[in-house]
Specification:
The protein has 161 residues and is α+β, with helices and mostly antiparallel strands. The chain is built from five helices and five strands. The strands form two sheets. Strands 1-2-3 form a three-stranded antiparallel sheet, with helices on both faces. Helix 2 links the parallel strand 4 and strand 5. The longest helix is centred in the middle third of the chain and has 14 residues. The radius of gyration is 18 Å and the shape is elongated. The two termini are 15 Å apart.
């Protein structure tokens, strides 16, 4: 399973306690800076996450090359994001077709991808109620979370949903 998610450098407040009639003050960076995390989960629990400045075919190719090194033979499930179907990506997938079988998720059906659960958990944890003083601190928190978190999802439950 493969997917990517955008993490925007700002506080995401879901709930707040406030005195009735008052206006709560919420710290905000006002920044539009973001970081993109590409991730993949394997049936045996192995996982690979990498952080990039944006989502495009150049970074996706870098991620694919790392993925092929880590998992030399795989069935690869992904959506049809524009950078997944770009001509250089198609060429890479064609060259590696004996080791890398690609199956696309149905369009508009993200619930079939277990990676969505990884992104939801990560965003709750990373963006929950923590204010990061710098973008570097924010990116470090993302890296640390996905480097140390072990997801134990039943991948077949999602595929057979």
């Amino acid at each position: 399973m493969q997917d990517e998610s955008i993490f925007t450098y700002d506080v995401k407040i879901r709930k707040v306690w406030a005195v009735k009639g008052s206006k709560p003050i919420i710290l905000s960076t006002g920044s539009k800076r973001k970081s993109v995390v590409f991730g993949a989960l394997a049936e045996d629990g192995a996982q690979l996450f990498r952080q990039y400045p944006t989502a495009n075919s150049d970074y996706f190719l870098l991620f694919l090359k790392e993925l092929v090194r880590k998992f030399p033979k795989m069935i690869f499930f992904m959506d049809k994001a524009p950078w997944h179907t770009e001509h250089r990506v198609k060429s890479f997938l064609r060259k590696n077709r004996f080791n890398l079988k690609v199956i696309f998720f149905p369009k508009g059906y993200p619930e079939s991808n277990p990676m969505e659960e990884c992104w939801n958990e990560g965003k709750d944890s990373i963006l929950g109620s923590t204010f990061y003083n710098s973008f570097a601190e924010f990116k470090s928190a993302i890296s640390n979370y996905y480097r140390t978190k072990k997801f134990s999802l039943d991948l077949y439950k999602y595929l057979c949903h």
